[in-house]
Input
Amino acid sequence: MMIQPQHRSMAWSALGGYALALLAGALVLAHVHAYQAGFSGADEPAHFLNGVFVSNYLHGHAGENPMAYAAEYYLHYPKISIGHWPPAYYGLLGVLLLALPATPQIAFLINLLVAALPAAALGWTLAWLAGRRLALAGCAVYVLTPLAVEGQAFFMLDQALTACCTAAAIAWLAYARCPGWNHAGVFAALCACAVLIKGNGWLVVLMPLFHMLLTRGWRLLGLPHLYLTGLAAATIIVPWYWLTASIAADGFNYQAGLPYAWQALTANLHTLLRNLGYAGAPLALLAIVVEYRRRLAAPQRWQVVGAAISLILATLTLQSLVPADIDARYLAPALPAYAALAALGAYHAGAAVGGWTARPAIAVLMLAMLAPGIAHLAQRGPKVDLRAADLPAVPPLQAPAVWIIDGSSGAEGALIAALAVRDPGLRHYAVRASKLLAASDFMGRRYALKFADAQQVLDELQRLGARYVVLVRLDNAAAFPHSAQLSAALRLPRAPFRRVLTLPHHHRAGVTEVYAFDGAAKANIGAVRQLGVPAKGGALTSSTHQ
Output
């Protein structure tokens, strides 16, 4: 069968958009030194270690109770957090890490490949709406937005969610155009995947409602396909969220209500404005107005434009109603659609100008939308390298070692992840100083010290039989009050610890210091294990085990 020239052009635009996104992502990784530096954000190590946990489970513990193994893993390396976040992306990571080395560098390469996927959809769509040249220009604008740049610099779930939501929008378009079981099944599967990647994946459930409203496609509600495929997806989604709702709720930073909704909506709109500059929003609005006026003459174009609008509205609605947090990266699923509309608006603006000035006008508008991303890259400093890979190795035949790790949440996680990948057999134990020496909730609120002075802290280190204490000092400062207590404890005259390694941070002021017990430290395994898993996590494990 012959491939139509338009389809060939769209396919090449999709491939070109993906290649462009890969190139831009690689340049971002090099520019901010993320590939070399590894993890430093608060959530990055947890996402990585969740994938490592799944890989270890599949490799050596398949068939065992997964939650019991998760509890055991947490006792050794308390940074896994499946339950707070859903498991879908970690399942993919776990399978990939069966064949690939479990390193931050591999994680960033996977992230690079996943984060570039929306650009392929963007290239395909814009090639159909406005031609190949504008498609590639629109992809360039998208991949260099501040949100996309940060998506390459940090290993997070938002990139995978954006790719899945974009695919779900395409699947919904296919179903709306040609309703049937196959299209409905694909859409339902992508919805389930999005929701099981991250909680704000629920936006894909709202997207069809907006699309039917914009396109007057309410007839689809009278068909059985979505109900039955949706019910099948719910049999997977609902049990997970029923089990983990109380754990995930620990991460909510606000109270639901009109004050939050208004605050979140204004912040989220400002995020979109900031990513494409002052040119982006008027151009996107121009595209909507022009395409709406032509909707009767070109209904298929309006279906596509309506899907882009629906994805933006669904993201804004969910993020303005669910009081988890107000964070720019939560708008990532809306960004490809927003970039597509803005690029389409530039195309229409050029057509309105007409003549020989059309192309220069489009070029100027596209450059104006590139400006925020270029400025962000120019101002952004490199990512800090905490030197986690340079921690000393414990010889395989030595007795189990207890590590006390102190620093910011991201620093604790980065070092724990580095230790965990060396110890797939779970012989050793890492203890977070933030949990050992202080009390707080999941988000670090209601903070309180557990010990009165440095001597009590030193007594606790010796009670646990700590062999190593690692201090991460960003900008050469203690992260928390308990960090200062721990430093003071190690400097006490009778402290049996000596500093054996000093690792200056790369790309930023700071140091990672390693102290070792001066003698033969015997790990108090029972005391370490009594530190336990969080109460809600333990409840989840127990309910699953029973």
